[in-house]
Amino acid sequence: MSPTLARLSPVDATWTEPERALLRRMAGSDILSIRQFAPDELKTLLDVVERFERVTAPLLQGKVLGALFFEPSTRTRLSFESSMTRLGGGVIGFADVQSTSVTKGESLHDTIRMAECYCDLIVIRHPHEGAARVAAEATARPVINGGDGSNQHPTQTLLDLYTIRRRCGRLSDLRIGFLGDLKYGRAAHSLIEAAGALGNELVLISPPELQLPALRREELSEHDVRFMETEDLDAAIPGLDVLYVTRIQQERFGDPLEFERVRNAYQIDITILDHAKPTMIVMHPLPRVNEIHPSLDASPQAAYFEQARNGVTVRKALLSILLERLP
Amino acid sequence: MSPTLARLSPVDATWTEPERALLRRMAGSDILSIRQFAPDELKTLLDVVERFERVTAPLLQGKVLGALFFEPSTRTRLSFESSMTRLGGGVIGFADVQSTSVTKGESLHDTIRMAECYCDLIVIRHPHEGAARVAAEATARPVINGGDGSNQHPTQTLLDLYTIRRRCGRLSDLRIGFLGDLKYGRAAHSLIEAAGALGNELVLISPPELQLPALRREELSEHDVRFMETEDLDAAIPGLDVLYVTRIQQERFGDPLEFERVRNAYQIDITILDHAKPTMIVMHPLPRVNEIHPSLDASPQAAYFEQARNGVTVRKALLSILLERLP
Amino acid sequence: MSPTLARLSPVDATWTEPERALLRRMAGSDILSIRQFAPDELKTLLDVVERFERVTAPLLQGKVLGALFFEPSTRTRLSFESSMTRLGGGVIGFADVQSTSVTKGESLHDTIRMAECYCDLIVIRHPHEGAARVAAEATARPVINGGDGSNQHPTQTLLDLYTIRRRCGRLSDLRIGFLGDLKYGRAAHSLIEAAGALGNELVLISPPELQLPALRREELSEHDVRFMETEDLDAAIPGLDVLYVTRIQQERFGDPLEFERVRNAYQIDITILDHAKPTMIVMHPLPRVNEIHPSLDASPQAAYFEQARNGVTVRKALLSILLERLP
After folding, report:
1. Is the pTM of this model over 0.90?
2. What's the ipTM?
3. Contacts of C115 in chain A (CB under 8 A)
4. Which residues of B touch A70 (CB under 8 A)?
5. What pLDDT does residue B264 have?
């Protein structure tokens, strides 16, 4: 649905003018793509998120979230469920498609029309690109994209940006390295786009098989984003403020030996910090398999579990904003 | 369990005398079949349901619903979960049998004896006819039949009747057409029975393969229900007040070509309204596959998504009545 | 995690001194094994549990339980969910491993690090021995072992002990018979250990194939527990105060005929009471298959469904104690 300017939220006097404007625009609307936020809106939105760090009031009492997970995703699902529950709301839905009417041949449009009868807003995770938009067009209820195929996962990107800002103190003029699977990785794609638009310099570190797709490279160039590509992890490390690691999946490789070679080459451990800035943080969307050795976990420079924690704050804020129940 | 006359509910003075009598009878009892309500009781019950349209109070705070789905049913499950959650109650249970003790050979009786320790009332969906009655006999807690095989699904019938009354202004003296699979369709069977008992005229439109079973036809005749059977959809349409469409399932047919022929013959779209009364409504228990073309969805005569919405109101009322927590 | 003496709970003046000491020690800690409670602590803990029989206040409002079931267990899961829900708390998690990141190769350690971001305490059920301890070491949140392989299931043992005390009036100086699979049965192992430590006499009744493992027998001897082993059920019955029956699983036997023979020999029905003390109670951790004939269910000496009911009281108490929210 489109933002409804008519339904003005009872925004408290403590909000700044840009915050009020953003809250009004987002009330009752959808979150489908990180692209729907201009760079200055992203900064304003993260200011609003920050206010939710200390919110424990049952703001969402009586509200029901429909969590429709057409493919399993423990992390995203539990994070949304936790956010809703902590604010006093309820959650209904399904964790995978096996126990749904979809197996009876129901269209996504109909499933959403059904769900809107049962809940106040919907988070959808779906294996197909564009599914979240189809869902949003089917209902007047707010829809949050919880990941649609290799397309978008905007709440992941928001929690990544929020983590960067809390750790680095700013959202721009950083040098951010992306390591691993830059060809298929949805989380990396979204963050590359947003971080570029916010005026950061990007260092794309991957094997040739998993480079950023040409189309995305061209988009970066069109928007005058400063970026460089390299296969050489060691050479890239010293200048980075952030190293964003992604999972390399075996199924992307035809040759198992080639997979092993690539995986070993881009696996990091505590020694990576020897040549890094003492302020460089290591991020990962999780789950990880072997990309980051547990020896790094105890380091204050490891930020990946903090990302998961920040995800709850981000989602608490988004749920409250869309449902117009502000602290 | 049987209704316990002893546990009188604190029925408010605003209820009418027939409403009070019904509420007393239903308090703490089971809902296993639509047959347990006489025609005048159905009307009274729908009056009570109507009062729940505006109820948002946490009437069921502290109460727990056990949702035991021995076969998947997203719609029914989410509808009950939503109703319970909106009234402040909690829900526990399972969405399919894979993650239950049933796979260890536990009897239904024992599963229910276990569940009654954990919740205040039970809704059960089960592939076998009569399972809901077995459940009700095992426990003193109220049990709601959420569909048992091809037998009964009383809350579906109640929401169908509620939708008809809201749209047509009455529950009797209507001409109601049933289209599609009248042989196996549980929702159609229950509604045919109830609509007949309420004094409506029935038009049964189906291919010969999917006609109403002989036993059910005889029952209609015994109860002096006016009904006719036809294969001719176009001829039947002009006189109808309600057209209730059902899904035709491929697995009912041995010959795939025969399935295609039948399905195409009984598929409807927006043009069906050209020859219908301007007040005729189109209903469907959902999920649909191809029976109703989406071109009909935007018409005010399409009532099928409203049925899903009404399902929440009906179930909110039933949960509150059985648990004796009235507004 | 270790008990944090720093975080003193606001223990009410009505608690006895031993109760206060135990509550302080347990606040924020884990429940991994029944062995972590000394005999006198078990008695004190059950005194505390008893106070929760009448507690209905929303003590756990705003708190979230993470229910991580890496293998299905309806009974334990629903019991924890019910306890949490009845006290006003929320529950998130998964009922089996299929819909989790574990299928992506995530380690248990990482799954727990994720979960701790989303909830206030964790109950874990896992097919591998020691999994609960691994979980507890990964997080500062309280962890409850909901069963790890054939190792421990401490909340089951606590509800068994609670049932024995309520029915027999005491926790020691009883003669307790254990019947069936004493080789693999986790519930029996834990209770044998605890009941022995509490000063009861044990009668271990099983076929040779399913005797208590030698190591466990030696442990009993080392702790001076009085116990005897026998194959003869009929001879053992007259002296018993408690008969604890367990399920004999076909998969333990290579030869199906041998399984049938054993199962039939140790199946009991209402006639077992003819030669028993009139006060002897029959217990079973459930689910049962054929071990106890339903003819026994109506007898006041059957205590197995009461065990399930007591499980909610025990778990309500434990959740409240660990989260330091006492009535």
Report:
1. yes
2. 0.92
3. 78
4. none
5. 83
